[in-house]
Amino acid sequence: MSQIHATSSRSLFRMEVSVQADIAAAPERVWELLASVDAQRDWNSTLTAIEGGIAEGDTVKLKVAAAGDREFTLKVSQVTPARGMTWSDGMAPMFKGVRTFELQPDGDATHFVMTEVFTGIMLPMIAGSLPDFVPVFETYAADLKRAAEG
Length: 150
Description:
Blueprint: E1 5-11, E2 14-23, H1 27-34, H2 37-43, E3 47-52, E4 59-64, E5 71-80, E6 84-91, E7 95-106, E8 109-119, H3 123-126, H4 133-149
Antiparallel strand pairs: 1-2, 2-8, 3-4, 4-5, 5-6, 6-7, 7-8
């Protein structure tokens, strides 16, 4: 199994952060942890608060330690159980963030990929107020891996 590794890239109107991890658990087990607000409260140490639902059309409100008291309100879409989902916030063309979660089966294990892409003409002004997502994503993936394998 490979190490957990996050990357980021940025241009004027686009920023992308991604993390990958190999998890020694079936995609169904990883999905149970990802698709439950209650479960995320238990395993996700990057969160300070989370509420809502994680099903297609639901809204999730969350706070992460790296962003202080700022609350993110995300729309859940394109849900395929045990395979992936997409969360988004904001409005194009001004500013939009789209987070995708992918679960790729690998025998009895799962290759997990989470990517967030921020775009929009407001990004140059907003980017400085966004947290450094690389350590947040690495912690998220490590927490998920630990919970799924435990």
